[in-house]
Amino acid sequence: MFKLPVCPYCHTVYGIKEVRKNKKKEIIKCYHCENKFKNARVKGYLILAFIITFSAVIVNTVILNLTADIISSVFPILAVSFTAVLLFALFSPYFIKYKKIKNSEIKEIPSEKIIIEPSGKQKRSVRKRTE
Protein backbone atom coordinates (compact mmCIF):
# COMPACT_ATOMS: atom_id res chain seq x y z
CA MET A 1 0.00 0.00 0.00
CA PHE A 2 2.94 2.37 0.57
CA LYS A 3 3.75 3.20 -3.03
CA LEU A 4 3.14 6.15 -5.26
CA PRO A 5 0.37 5.84 -7.87
CA VAL A 6 1.11 4.83 -11.44
CA CYS A 7 -0.70 5.40 -14.72
CA PRO A 8 -2.96 2.38 -15.33
CA TYR A 9 -2.09 2.39 -19.04
CA CYS A 10 1.67 2.99 -19.36
CA HIS A 11 2.67 2.47 -15.68
CA THR A 12 4.41 5.84 -15.37
CA VAL A 13 5.13 6.57 -11.72
CA TYR A 14 3.86 9.94 -10.48
CA GLY A 15 5.91 11.92 -7.97
CA ILE A 16 4.63 13.32 -4.69
CA LYS A 17 4.25 16.86 -6.07
CA GLU A 18 2.25 15.62 -9.07
CA VAL A 19 0.02 13.48 -6.88
CA ARG A 20 -0.72 16.39 -4.56
CA LYS A 21 -1.44 18.62 -7.56
CA ASN A 22 -3.86 16.05 -9.03
CA LYS A 23 -5.38 15.08 -5.69
CA LYS A 24 -8.65 16.99 -6.14
CA LYS A 25 -9.14 16.25 -9.83
CA GLU A 26 -11.56 13.50 -10.76
CA ILE A 27 -10.19 12.83 -14.24
CA ILE A 28 -6.47 13.04 -14.85
CA LYS A 29 -4.60 12.99 -18.15
CA CYS A 30 -1.28 11.12 -18.20
CA TYR A 31 1.62 13.33 -19.21
CA HIS A 32 3.40 10.39 -20.84
CA CYS A 33 0.77 8.45 -22.82
CA GLU A 34 -1.98 11.13 -22.69
CA ASN A 35 -4.71 8.64 -21.71
CA LYS A 36 -7.33 9.71 -19.20
CA PHE A 37 -7.96 7.91 -15.92
CA LYS A 38 -9.73 8.56 -12.65
CA ASN A 39 -8.48 9.28 -9.17
CA ALA A 40 -9.63 6.56 -6.71
CA ARG A 41 -8.63 7.94 -3.34
CA VAL A 42 -11.56 7.15 -1.02
CA LYS A 43 -10.65 3.58 -0.05
CA GLY A 44 -6.99 4.42 0.52
CA TYR A 45 -7.84 7.49 2.59
CA LEU A 46 -10.16 5.42 4.77
CA ILE A 47 -7.43 2.88 5.43
CA LEU A 48 -4.89 5.60 6.24
CA ALA A 49 -7.35 7.47 8.48
CA PHE A 50 -8.18 4.26 10.35
CA ILE A 51 -4.51 3.40 10.95
CA ILE A 52 -3.59 6.87 12.16
CA THR A 53 -6.72 7.37 14.28
CA PHE A 54 -6.38 3.97 15.92
CA SER A 55 -2.74 4.56 16.80
CA ALA A 56 -3.48 8.10 18.10
CA VAL A 57 -6.31 6.80 20.32
CA ILE A 58 -4.04 4.12 21.80
CA VAL A 59 -1.23 6.61 22.49
CA ASN A 60 -3.66 9.12 24.01
CA THR A 61 -5.15 6.40 26.24
CA VAL A 62 -1.67 5.46 27.46
CA ILE A 63 -0.90 9.13 28.17
CA LEU A 64 -4.13 9.50 30.16
CA ASN A 65 -3.36 6.37 32.18
CA LEU A 66 0.21 7.43 32.98
CA THR A 67 -0.58 10.97 34.09
CA ALA A 68 -2.17 11.75 37.45
CA ASP A 69 -4.58 14.44 36.29
CA ILE A 70 -6.16 15.54 33.04
CA ILE A 71 -4.70 19.05 33.11
CA SER A 72 -1.09 17.85 32.91
CA SER A 73 -1.89 15.54 29.98
CA VAL A 74 -3.44 18.21 27.73
CA PHE A 75 -0.24 19.21 25.92
CA PRO A 76 0.95 15.64 25.22
CA ILE A 77 -2.51 14.76 23.87
CA LEU A 78 -2.48 17.86 21.65
CA ALA A 79 1.00 16.92 20.43
CA VAL A 80 -0.17 13.41 19.54
CA SER A 81 -3.24 14.79 17.73
CA PHE A 82 -1.14 17.30 15.78
CA THR A 83 1.29 14.53 14.85
CA ALA A 84 -1.60 12.38 13.61
CA VAL A 85 -2.85 15.16 11.33
CA LEU A 86 0.70 15.76 10.07
CA LEU A 87 1.19 12.05 9.34
CA PHE A 88 -2.08 11.96 7.39
CA ALA A 89 -0.93 14.91 5.28
CA LEU A 90 2.50 13.35 4.67
CA PHE A 91 1.35 9.82 3.81
CA SER A 92 -1.80 10.64 1.82
CA PRO A 93 -0.07 10.52 -1.62
CA TYR A 94 0.96 6.92 -0.95
CA PHE A 95 -2.66 5.82 -0.50
CA ILE A 96 -4.02 7.14 -3.81
CA LYS A 97 -4.58 4.83 -6.77
CA TYR A 98 -5.31 5.69 -10.37
CA LYS A 99 -7.84 3.52 -12.19
CA LYS A 100 -8.94 3.21 -15.80
CA ILE A 101 -12.21 4.86 -16.73
CA LYS A 102 -14.91 2.37 -17.66
CA ASN A 103 -17.01 3.04 -20.75
CA SER A 104 -20.13 3.38 -18.60
CA GLU A 105 -18.45 6.11 -16.50
CA ILE A 106 -17.42 8.35 -19.39
CA LYS A 107 -19.29 11.63 -19.26
CA GLU A 108 -19.87 13.92 -22.15
CA ILE A 109 -17.02 16.40 -22.08
CA PRO A 110 -17.58 19.41 -24.29
CA SER A 111 -15.05 19.54 -27.07
CA GLU A 112 -13.37 22.54 -28.60
CA LYS A 113 -14.84 24.09 -31.70
CA ILE A 114 -12.49 25.45 -34.31
CA ILE A 115 -13.85 28.48 -36.11
CA ILE A 116 -12.23 29.58 -39.35
CA GLU A 117 -12.49 33.33 -39.81
CA PRO A 118 -12.72 34.95 -43.24
CA SER A 119 -9.11 36.08 -42.91
CA GLY A 120 -8.04 32.43 -42.93
CA LYS A 121 -6.90 32.32 -39.32
CA GLN A 122 -8.20 29.63 -37.04
CA LYS A 123 -9.78 30.68 -33.80
CA ARG A 124 -10.62 28.31 -30.98
CA SER A 125 -13.62 28.75 -28.80
CA VAL A 126 -14.28 26.53 -25.83
CA ARG A 127 -17.80 25.88 -24.66
CA LYS A 128 -18.23 26.38 -20.95
CA ARG A 129 -19.79 23.62 -18.91
CA THR A 130 -23.22 24.25 -17.55
CA GLU A 131 -23.95 22.31 -14.43
Structural write-up:
Residues about 110-115 have low confidence and may be disordered. The protein contains three helices and five strands; from the N terminus they run H-E-E-H-H-E-E-E. The protein is about 35% helix and about 15% strand. Strand 4 and strand 5 (about 120-125) form a beta hairpin. The strands form two sheets. It has a three-stranded antiparallel sheet with strand order 1-2-3. Strands 4-5 form a two-stranded antiparallel ribbon. It has a domain at about 15-105. The protein has about 130 residues and is an alpha+beta fold.
Low-confidence stretches: 109-117
**Mean pLDDT, rounded to whole units?**
78
Secondary-structure element order, N to C: HEEHHEEE
Estimated structural class = alpha+beta
Distance between the termini: 36 Å
If helices are DSSP runs of H or I spanning 4 or more residues, what is the number of helices?
A: 3
Percent strand: 15-25%
Summarize the biggest pleated sheet: 3 strands, antiparallel
Largest beta sheet: what is the strand line-up? 1-2-3
The level of helicity is 25-40%
Radius of gyration, whole Å: 23 Å
